[in-house]
Amino acid sequence: MSDSTIVLITGANSGIGYATTQLLASQPKHHVIMACRDVSKGQQALTEIQNSSDKIQGTLSVLQLDVTDDSSIAAAVETVRQQFGRVDAFISNAGTLALQSSGRAQLREMFDANVFGALLVSEAFIPLLLQSARPYLVQVSSALGSVGLASDPNDTWYATAWYEYRMTKAALNMATIQFHKRLSAQNVRVFAFCPGLVRSKIRGDSEEAITAQGAAGDPIDSAKGLVDIVQGRRDAEAGQFLRTDGSGSWPW
């Protein structure tokens, strides 16, 4: 693996994580570590990707990782350390809407995964990122977490509720800014990235939920933006909150 780019993606068995894995695996000299809370779902996703195309040129592996479980995080870090010795790109993608909960319990679950989990798992893998000659740390956020857009009456999503989700992504954005300020001197390129509204099971398992009543786009289009980051095409924008389409950045 010394000549491969090692990319670890949390929440890699569906949505943006799955699509990004597909794209990276279609290119040579990439090894994608599919970090999933449920190993069986991760293995199923890996098999689907391997069987879906004869153009797979990279390699894949599955890693058990629950970002809300400190023991799971520690075990995952040790596994990656022993098997690879480094991580070249860490894409923090796992998140939840905690649809089965409500009130205080829902807030706790969402902040635990979307903020605390994202922060702590990224922190845990930083020593392995620092072993890379060209490290990347990417937080998958959302324009809904932009305080600038949320306070702009002219913004398309101004009237969108989703209060709890917007709060978690705003907090994640602050964490990203702090990571950038701390790590840029150590050659780590840190980004927040908004994938836009795409097909995803985060809203539920029904077709209506997955497609957001038909409004959601193809996650493969958004995944191209993450691949651009990993492959260095947006290095000049490190420390920013990138848009999906490559047209610049969102306001924090």
Folded structure, characterized:
The chain is an alpha/beta fold and 252 residues long. It has one domain (5-242): 3-Layer(aba) Sandwich (Rossmann fold), CATH 3.40.50.720. The chain is 42% helix and 14% strand. It contains 8 helices and 7 strands; from the N terminus they run E-H-E-H-E-H-E-H-E-H-H-E-H-H-E. It has helices at residues 15-25, 39-52, 70-83, 103-129, 147-150, 163-183, 207-210, 219-230, and strands spanning 5-10, 30-36, 59-64, 89-92, 136-140, 189-193, 241-242. The protein has a 7-stranded parallel sheet, sandwiched between helices. Helix 4 runs parallel beside helix 6.
Brief write-up:
InterPro entries: Fungal_SecMetab_SDRs, NAD(P)-bd_dom_sf, SDR_fam. The protein is 42% helix and 14% strand. It is built from 8 helices and 7 strands; from the N terminus they run βαβαβαβαβααβααβ.
